[in-house]
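Open question from group meeting: does this chain pack into something compact, or does most of it stay loose? Before anyone orders reagents, we agreed to write out a predicted structure and look at it together. Recording both the input and the output here so the notebook holds the full record.
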Amino acid sequence: MLLGPQYALLRPEFAQWRVTSLAHRQSPELRHILVTMGGVDRDNVTERVLTGLHRCRLPTLEKITVVMGLHAPWHDAVIAAAAGMKIQTVVLSDVDQMAELMSTCDLAIGAGGTTTLERCSLGLPSVLLILADNQLNIVEHMVEADAAFAIGDLDSLETSLVEFLESFALSNKMAIYAQNSSDLLDANGVVRTIAKLLGHNG
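Structure tokens returned:
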């Protein structure tokens, strides 16, 4: 059986952007944050994350990029919230070049789903939110590997986010998360899987 993150079937763009992204991690500074909860975000967690970010004192932060589905129920509310942010905040939908975007970011705040594997392949440090029960295992694995920070209690999301980010920006955790997450997964799962299958059949 082909199990484990080394066999994760990611799109080819993640392997293509891995070197560029890891080079970006060599000068860790919290300048650009990516926020993505998946296409729907039915509970509008994205806007709550923006509220937390608005409260943060992050002197190096220059830009926040939000990615969400164009038809997400809270799309207009998030755009309105972005317009009121003290940091430049853009909202993007239906992004085709996700790996390229991730390679320019210094931290991602997102759901602990399969996109977590994409972020790992690029060494992008993450704050993981548990939005569904099926995300628990991957989040626990990331935390155990010291590859991400997790917020499981969404009732205190904004407060937890502020407390973590203000200490994170002053620590060496960004470099640690980048190294440990990139060590978990190298974006070559498709190649590795095909090689195994050909070897098995041949």
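Observations to bring back to the group:
The chain has one domain: 11-17+24-186.
Residues 16 and 99 are 8 Å apart (CA to CA).
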